[in-house]
Automatic annotation (TrEMBL):
Residues annotated as domain VOC: 8-123, 141-259
Lineage, top ranks: Bacteria, Bacillati, Actinomycetota, Actinomycetes, Streptosporangiales
InterPro entries in the cross-refs: Glyas_Bleomycin-R_OHBP_Dase, Glyas_Fos-R_dOase_dom, GlyoxalaseI/FosfomycinResist, VOC_core
PANTHER family: GLYOXALASE FAMILY PROTEIN (PTHR21366), METALLOTHIOL TRANSFERASE FOSB (PTHR21366:SF31)
Top-level taxon of origin: Bacteria
Species assigned in the record: Actinomadura fibrosa
This protein's name: VOC family protein
Any Pfam family hit: Glyoxalase
Amino acid sequence: MTLQPITHLRHLDLAVPDFERQRAFYTGVWGLTEVARDGGLAFFAAEGSPEHYVVRLRRDERKRMDLVAFGAATSADVDALASRLIAGNVSLVHEPRLLDTPGGGYGLRFFDPDGRVVEVSSGVSPRVHRKIEEREAIPVRLSHCVVNSDHPERLRAFYERHLGFRLSDTLYSHRMGDLMYFMRCNRLHHSFAIARGPHVSLHHASFEMRGVEEYMRGTGRALRAGTRLTWGPGRHLAGDNTFSYFHDPHGNTVEYTTELAVVDEDTWHPDRHDVDDQRTQDQWGTADPMSEVIAKEQFNDPDVLFQAPPV
């Protein structure tokens, strides 16, 4: 297996009770395109992304994060990852096999130490996508996924050891210690991040816009649609990206962002950013200062753990 088997973030899968309301939000408000539907499953693409889908919704009585999916370079990397996970006594949901989701491919699923399901796949056929035009305020791609963990140090070590993620930066507090680890699998500052939280859950899913103009127009469209803004607009220090955090109809935090930093692997050194410095959370000073109330907005509901979704 290559030292860095994970190439990129593919998609995030969510289960929700009010399936139709969630479908309407991701198409009518958030700007994704529904590309496939099969009963209680719906698949949504970002028009600027070659991924067949970046969000999958599944109808279920329980709200949960079904899984987070990453890409691998080759089927050999998928097989080698499976062998490494088995040798490390990591519980597999299923061994490498052909996938029957849009785009196909070859992949496996397993539980990370927190109990969430992770999928890693290769050979997924690219989707015909297009250039997002100037002032077109829809997502280009899925930017990153952030999860809450009550054991973030353990989770960071797992993703570094088994999936080859590298630490880009850390948020910390003198009172509470390390609060967030930003992890990269390519030159983007982070595709995955781990936040210290009271329980295991989705912190937020972030969607990249074409530029600041499109990011602001998308933020405005969501606001005009009555979507609840929980934080922003602003610009983080770690990653240097813009942020507008909203709640989807089931209380999951979704973010519009743009201009995420691209790092030089040969020269980058992880930094530690103090959250008590207001510039760490928002360089612009346009968002409300980070507070306990704002932080709780991203805690989300406790997730369903060590139980694989039915599909």
